[in-house]
Amino acid sequence: xxxxxxxxxxxxxxxxxxxxxxxxxxxxxxxxxxxxxxxxxxxxxxxxxxxxxxxxxxxxxxxxxxxxxxxxxxxxxxxxxxxxxxxxxxxxxxxxxxxxxxxxxxxxxxxxxxxxxxxxxxxxxxxxxxxxxxxxxxxxxxxxxxxxxxxxxxxxxxxxxxxxxxxxxxxxxxxxxxxxxxxxxxxxxxxxxxxxxxxxxxxxxxxxxxxxxxxxxxxxxxxxxxxxxxxxxxxxxxxxxxxxxxxxxxxxxxxxxxxxxxxxxxxxxxxxxxxxxxxxxxxxxxxxxxxxxxxxxxxxxxxxxxxxxxxxxxxxxxxxxxxxxxxxxxxxxxxxxxxxxxxxxxxxxxxxxxxxxxxxxxxxxxxxxxxxxxxxxxxxxxxxxxxxxxxxxxxxxxxxxxxxxxxxxxxxxxxxxxxxxxxxxxxxxxxxxxxxxx
Length: 438
Ligand code: XLS
Ligand code: NI
Ligand code: NI
Description:
Blueprint: E1 32-33, E2 36-37, H1 38-42, E3 45-47, H2 48-53, H3 76-93, E4 97-101, H4 102-105, H5 112-133, E5 136-141, H6 160-179, E6 184-188, E7 193-194, H7 202-223, E8 228-232, E9 241-242, H8 247-256, E10 263-268, H9 269-274, H10 279-288, E11 292-296, H11 315-327, E12 336-338, H12 349-375, H13 378-386, H14 393-399, H15 405-415, H16 426-436
Parallel strand pairs: 3-4, 3-12, 4-5, 5-6, 6-8, 8-10, 10-11, 11-12
Antiparallel strand pairs: 1-2, 7-9
D-xylose (XLS) binds next to β6.
């Protein structure tokens, strides 16, 4: 049985000159760049929710995706069939990883016990397909935002029962992620934030969120789960203000509550831009704290102000991502997860292939460009030169903590003024980047 007859064999690498739209032009899994294969650089992952559950609905109309395998039910049988579809797709595409929310893979029952039993039946099949194909779980997560019980949030709900429910749900999600050999576990705070401050005790909600994470850390230890915990920042949507606003807010939160040893960050492009940052900013901020764990690769639309989750195709973006990722020596055990969906207008199954191929190729090209920039040291030398005043003399003394305000005053009084500044050369640097962009 094949669910994707348009793609008869595995998508192959055909090189930059290929005109075959169902081939890779840059992603060559075995090609070694900076001492590592492309497969290991990216650890590409498919997002179960968008690719196998997304039907293209938007606020103005229902989805119109053609998915011939769907029977219109939300049964466990359908969920199991969908697992076979998913693994056929990923095998043909050649992505080594996937990610899911508990509720993407199995339907909810009428109570938690039934829901968990549904999940167990599907997890058995996921495990079977993982063993058959060698495809692995990059991360699992719990959907703590769709069900109406989470209307006011989960760990930050004003209702303590909802906190308890969320804890029970994450407990189970951790168990199945562990069972499936998941390499990470993600917390994205779907409705952990507020819509207005008139009805919100922000301090109490943040304390609860921290308590929730401490409980998760405890349970992780208890079951011997060794995967990396990740928090995925997002500034808003669905809430007006989401507590995990951006990298800086998450790092500060983790440090405030004594959690920073247990978490890293999963950074998503479209969330960065919603926060008014570039992806490069968010990655750099997390990385400089040793906390860049994984990325959700996508992009927003320049003209739309919401989380459109488009597939990444911009080479400036992927080059910048790879500069930061190479700069910290890689992402493992994290990876590059396509938290991205095909446009509503791209409704045929084969569009799922075109979308992922484009994203993988854009990242592969970004990797090759970033590696060339690094090999020639153009940016490194510029940065080093720009901060040269800190390498000796007064700069070195300040960094070493050897001087105070009084000594600095004497130093400047003796010189009369600060040494002249040098140009930032932004335009020259942009021109240099363009030289590599091919
Ligand atoms: C939504 C988030 C979500 C997380 C997983 O905006 O990106 O999909 O990645 O819960
Ligand atoms: Ni998102
Ligand atoms: Ni995401």
